[in-house]
Design the sequence.
């Protein structure tokens, strides 16, 4: 749109040319997809987002990259290679868009819209049953996002104000876990960070690192959705704790990530409760490692409550 504005406003263009361009623009504006430059190939391009269940393109305003394949200057048949379909391509584009690093916008409405659009797109993806082809796509995109540069929200280096990847990472984790647990945990652990809180640590009481969240809303940048974001971070951690039951090494790794990245005392205590429930869920003997995780998290946040928990549960006496 900006490019066409520059062309149409060119003072050296004749009126006849402008009228012709206006007619062409009105024609193209009614098309579902962008045409080629000569305007003769618009109908040959597939609308890949329509390959997802109805409504999947509700996220298109903030997930513009999710529609990027619509605009490739190739006829439809050139997209399809062995094992590919419009559905697989649409899923892959959705994963690319969800994993892109993007800066949190200003304002309550815009920030809520970011969360809502992401959750809507993930909700539509969850309706799709993963077959071998889609699992390969998930693996490929997870590896790419972990190894990619500054455009990836799961890359090693991200901007402090980047939209966190917790919600997307939980979906990626649960999807990959049955097929590639190592990659699932690697992606989820990378996504646990919340740099906007870490960067504000020096502004608060550094002797109480888990109370940073109370400082941030009154400081720049203003993240109105911070409580929701921290809840999603907690959900991701809880999913990893649940899946890691019985695996001592993974539980220790998840515990370290929780202690490093989660700054809310209430969420850490909630995870302590979750760990205890998971450890004692079955009729068999409780998971000792998970009980230790529960106790350590509880002592870290609310010592009195954790001690009460210890005294009232015989299962914890061995610890």
Sequence:
């Amino acid at each position: 749109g900006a490019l066409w504005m520059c062309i149409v406003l060119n003072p050296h263009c004749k009126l006849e040319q402008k009228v012709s361009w206006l007619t062409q623009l009105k024609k193209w504006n009614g098309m579902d997809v962008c045409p080629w430059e000569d305007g003769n190939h618009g109908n040959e391009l597939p609308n890949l987002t329509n390959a997802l269940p109805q409504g999947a393109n509700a996220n298109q305003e903030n997930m513009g990259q999710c529609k990027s394949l619509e605009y490739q200057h190739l006829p439809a048949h050139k997209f399809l290679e062995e094992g590919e379909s419009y559905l697989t391509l649409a899923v892959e584009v959705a994963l690319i868009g969800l994993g892109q690093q993007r800066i949190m916008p200003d304002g309550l409405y815009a920030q809520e819209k970011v969360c809502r659009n992401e959750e809507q797109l993930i909700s539509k993806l969850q309706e799709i049953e993963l077959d071998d082809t889609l699992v390969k796509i998930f693996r490929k995109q997870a590896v790419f996002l972990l190894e990619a540069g500054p455009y990836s929200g799961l890359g090693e280096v991200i901007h402090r104000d980047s939209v966190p990847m917790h919600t997307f990472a939980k979906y990626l984790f649960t999807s990959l876990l049955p097929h590639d647990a190592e990659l699932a945990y690697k992606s989820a652990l990378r996504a646990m960070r919340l740099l906007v809180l870490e960067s504000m640590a020096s502004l608060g009481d550094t002797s109480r690192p888990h109370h940073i969240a109370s400082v941030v809303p009154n400081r720049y940048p203003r993240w109105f959705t911070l409580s929701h974001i921290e809840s999603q971070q907690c959900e991701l951690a809880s999913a990893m704790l649940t899946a890691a039951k019985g695996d001592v090494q993974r539980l220790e790794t998840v515990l370290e990530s929780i202690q490093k990245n989660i700054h809310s005392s209430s969420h850490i205590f909630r995870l302590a409760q979750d760990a205890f429930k998971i450890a004692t869920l079955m009729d068999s003997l409780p998971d000792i490692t998970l009980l230790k995780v529960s106790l350590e998290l509880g002592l870290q946040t609310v010592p009195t409550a954790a001690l009460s928990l210890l005294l009232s549960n015989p299962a914890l006496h061995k610890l």
